[in-house]
Amino acid sequence: MTDVLDTVAGKSGELVLRRAGDDFEVIANGVFLMDTRNGESERLLVSVAADLVPGKARMLIGGLGVGYSLRAALDHPGVGEIVVVEREPAVIGWNREGPLRDVHGDALSDERVTVVEADLVKWLRRTEERFDALCLDIDNGPEWTVTDGNAKLYQEDGLDMLAERLRPGGVLGVWSAESVPSFAKRLRARFGEVRELKIPVPQGEPDVLWFARR
């Protein structure tokens, strides 16, 4: 049985938070976006990126989601300061004060975490901040974006912008629900070192993670 817990007009359209048994789901404009059933690949996105960076990494997480990536970053001994950029205030509220808070053990209250309510593409264009690890989980993949504007991040100009926000030796991590060979090719043309991981899921194609070092 599925229960709708909240429905809001988000910046990218209608957002719905619902409960399905013991799990939560987020639906955007009628399209499934995320849930709390697994989260293995979301956790690996930040933990592998942190493993690739020496010392205490300053990490940017693009997209708060259900908080799995943030929790994994906080639990990793190689991560220090964390900046989370999330454009939907409802998602922040569901994680900070709502039912998603217990999913990640109130991760947003940790003093190492700064939450920025902003569109990631626009924020990256105007910020001068740099990071040791930059982890993107704002879409279902480079060719399956939540909004058309996000598609720019995965093209040559977007990858150049992401590279500029990395410190020397920094790592870019990207999450996808599907393999995208054309995106992998663009990554390899821009970054000197690219690693691709495929993470099996209970149904459908494996999730895919890319890690690219500047």
TrEMBL record:
SUPFAM superfamilies the UniProt entry points to: S-adenosyl-L-methionine-dependent methyltransferases
InterPro entries per the UniProt record, alphabetical: SAM-dependent_MTases_sf
Any one Pfam family match given in the protein's UniProt record, by short name: Spermine_synth
Keywords on record: Polyamine biosynthesis
Entry keyword annotation includes Phosphoprotein: no
GO process terms (BP): polyamine biosynthetic process
Top-rank lineage group of the source organism: Bacteria
UniProt name for this protein: Spermidine synthase
UniProt source species: Amycolatopsis azurea DSM 43854
